[in-house]
Design a protein that fits this description.
- The longest helix has 35 residues.
- α6 crosses α7 and α12 packs antiparallel against α14.
- By secondary structure, this protein is α/β, with parallel strands linked by helices.
- It folds into 4 domains: 31 residues; 181 residues, Rossmann fold; 199 residues, 3-Layer(aba) Sandwich (Rossmann fold); 68 residues, no CATH class.
- A hairpin with a 4-residue loop joins β17 and β18.
- The protein is extended.
- The strands form 6 sheets. An 8-stranded mixed beta sheet has the order 4-3-5-2-6-7-1-8, sandwiched between helices. Strands 10-9-19-16-13-15-14 form a 7-stranded mixed beta sheet, sandwiched between helices. Strands 22-23-24-25 form a 4-stranded antiparallel beta sheet, with no helix packed on it.
- Helices cover 41% and strands 16% of the residues.
């Protein structure tokens, strides 16, 4: 039972009327759901969090766009709080199973297992609970099937909603937003995007009242570095009082560290073939002045440990690469935990894995995994046993695992913030090809650096690679926002589901309300406006062309027609000359001596073969051979005694045998 707050000291200095008014305001605030929700946290909420929560309590939907790690999920948790308080359901959707599992665990700790459920492709736990955490695809399937689980649904939280730009899965988010009943309040949580207002306008059009709340302030400043050889360079040149170049993402316009620019230039001078992407390979330390190399994984962890920048997450865009990195650290004898920490780790791991049979532990590589955890080192990727991943996450949050090698899925909202983030490469496999990571992906990954309430600053470290361009990296790090573009493409399966459930007319209306169509319509409007402005400008030109000496418009029309006729005659003449040249070559016989008019082999030549297209066996001429698409290709012996096959481009006019 909450006890009333004691009378603030400042109220004692107010007049009786002012103190009474202040007391009434506090009483009104304490009567709100937000007041009770705030008591669940031991830290005050930020302004954007308060604004979003107040909007939700007022009955409107919200789109919250804020940097990674700024605490957007608190708004989603408030939606859960409102649903439970009002006797309604709340679905909390996430893009990946790992994030769903973690959010499920967080909500169970707060509200109890009886009130929280989990629905993913791997797990189905208490699906009829008032609060259910699920992947977005599960909710989409519920909407298509008309599931009874949707009865009483009051709130839907779409965490990482900017994922709708994903080329393969993004359309699912739009389908859910379009199909949700109008009575459901939508809470959309997004990373900072440059067109949040446009996305909010679409949400407002499709869902009704939606307020856009944007915060561009990182709670923990982020510093950018490049590690080359055995040195750590700051990416941006912004000297502080000590003369050291430093830079925060709050000032993206700063110049690149000149030391890095010189380093890249000198590396290019030593390896000139890199200008064309050749001659690449790992450069190893050899003691020469100015020589740099890509630091090894163990060296990076050692350096971060010496600088006090652990715990750290190293992103490797490969599951096998993550496992290999752990093995490299174990083989080197690297140890990051004290003996007392090792005992705590072993106790936690044995407790969490007690129900796994011993014979399965050997198959799963349990003992090697445990050895790494005891040393403070682990991998984290989708190929791991879910129980193993959960243990890694728990130990990392407790500070018992200090170096994690992870794939990019770890950046999607999973609560594993670190003091530092390391990027080994700026290229990843996107399912079709190796492509450069985008500014949005870079921001998402490095956003894990800096633990709110623990670290005063976070650090992003990019490892030096042969051919690294500091200017390009600065552009990647300095782009704080990126546009959110729809990946919605109606598929055959989607069309069948829509028509079977809603009919053709309603299905067409739903497709026309997609964010993709919304963006397309806006671009069409812009083009139409430009056309209108151009037409108005042409009308003005027509008025100014009026003259007492004659009709300028008619004069220009005659000039245009004359020019068109001249071009037509020129084309006809060229065609006739080409036809004559082809005919002359077709008349040649082996042994004829000709004079090649132009080209590299101009001069006298002996015809060895006229180079006519092959004919069919029937003698009527078969399909044109691809080597003879442009006409005959005569083979000649030049005056320099070289045998060459010529083309029609060498014969701008007819030739005759000498």
């Amino acid at each position: 039972m909450n006890t009333p707050d004691p009378e603030p000291q400042e109220d004692q200095e107010l007049s009786p009327a002012e103190a009474y008014a202040a007391s009434r305001r506090r009483a009104k605030e304490q009567a709100t759901a937000l007041y009770g929700f705030q008591q669940l946290y031991d830290f005050p909420l930020d302004d954007f969090q308060l604004e979003a929560c107040e909007t939700l309590e007022a009955g409107s939907g919200v789109l919250v766009a804020a940097p990674t790690g700024s605490g957007k999920t608190i708004v989603g948790e408030f939606a859960v709080h409102l649903a439970l308080q009002g006797g309604r359901k709340c679905f909390y959707t996430t893009p990946i199973k790992a994030l769903s599992n973690q959010k499920y665990g967080d909500l169970v700790k707060r509200y109890g297992a009886a009130k929280v459920g989990l629905l993913t492709g791997d797990n189905s736990v208490n699906g009829d609970a008032p609060v259910v955490v699920m992947t977005t695809e599960v909710l989409r399937n519920m909407l298509y099937a008309g599931s009874s689980t949707l009865d009483g649904l009051g709130y839907v939280v779409m965490d990482e909603v900017h994922y709708l730009a994903d080329r393969l899965r993004g359309a699912v988010w739009e389908e859910v937003i379009i199909h949700l009943p109008e009575s459901v309040t939508l809470v959309s949580l997004s990373a900072t995007v440059s067109n949040a207002e446009e996305f909010g306008d679409w949400l407002d059009t499709v869902r009704g009242g939606t307020k856009v709340i944007v915060s561009e302030t990182r709670p923990v400043p982020l510093w950018q570095h490049v590690m080359a050889g055995n040195r750590m360079y700051d990416l941006f040149a912004d000297p502080d009082r000590d003369g050291r170049p430093k830079h925060s993402l709050k000032n993206p316009g700063k110049a690149v560290n000149p030391e890095l620019v010189r380093l890249a230039r000198s590396e290019l001078d030593r390896n000139p073939r890199d200008r064309f992407g050749r001659g690449r390979g790992r450069s190893m330390p050899n003691g020469r002045p100015g020589k740099v190399w890509t630091p090894g994984r163990v060296d990076v962890i050692d350096r971060l440990d010496a600088e006090g920048l652990l715990p750290a997450i190293t992103f490797i865009f490969s599951r096998a690469g993550c496992e290999a990195a752990v093995q490299q650290c174990l083989s080197s004898g690297l140890r990051l935990n004290k003996e007392s920490d090792r005992a705590v780790v072993r106790a936690i791991v044995e407790e969490r894995c007690a129900d796994i049979p011993d014979e399965d532990l050997h198959v799963l590589g349990y003992f090697e995994w445990l050895d790494g955890l005891e040393r403070g080192i682990a991998a984290h990727h989708a190929g791991m046993l879910p129980r193993f991943k959960e243990v890694v996450e728990e130990l990392f949050v407790k500070g018992l695992v200090k170096a994690v090698f992870a794939t990019e899925t770890l950046a999607l909202g999973i609560n594993m913030p670190a003091r530092s983030v390391v990027m080994e490469k700026l290229v990843k496999w996107n399912g079709e090809t190796h492509a450069d990571i985008t500014p949005g992906e870079y921001t998402q990954l490095t956003g894990r650096a800096g633990r709110r309430g623990i670290d005063v600053e976070g650090h992003a470290v990019v490892l030096w690679q042969r051919g690294l361009d500091p200017e390009a990296l600065a552009g990647l790090a300095g782009t704080r926002t990126y546009p959110l573009k729809s990946s919605f493409r109606p598929s055959y399966n989607m069309a069948v589901n829509l028509v079977s459930q809603f009919g053709r007319h309603r299905s067409r209306e739903l497709l026309e309300t997609s964010f993709a169509q919304f963006q397309a319509d806006r671009s069409v409007v812009g083009i139409a406006r430009q056309v209108q402005r151009n037409e108005e400008g042409l009308d003005g030109y027509r008025e100014s062309m009026t003259c007492h000496l004659g009709d300028f418009d008619a004069y220009m029309e005659l000039r245009r027609r004359l020019k068109d006729r001249e071009n037509e005659l020129a084309r006809e003449g060229s065609s006739q000359r080409r036809a004559a040249a082809v005919e002359s070559i077709e008349q040649l016989k082996p042994g004829d001596v000709i004079h090649v008019p132009t080209g590299k082999f101009a001069g006298l030549a002996l015809v060895l073969d006229p180079g006519l297209p092959p004919v069919s066996r029937s003698g009527r001429g078969g399909p044109r051979h691809p080597d003879f698409q442009d006409g005959p290709r005569p083979v000649v012996l030049t005056a320099e005694r070289q045998v060459k096959r010529l083309a029609m481009i060498d014969f701008p006019h007819p030739v005759v045998a000498v």
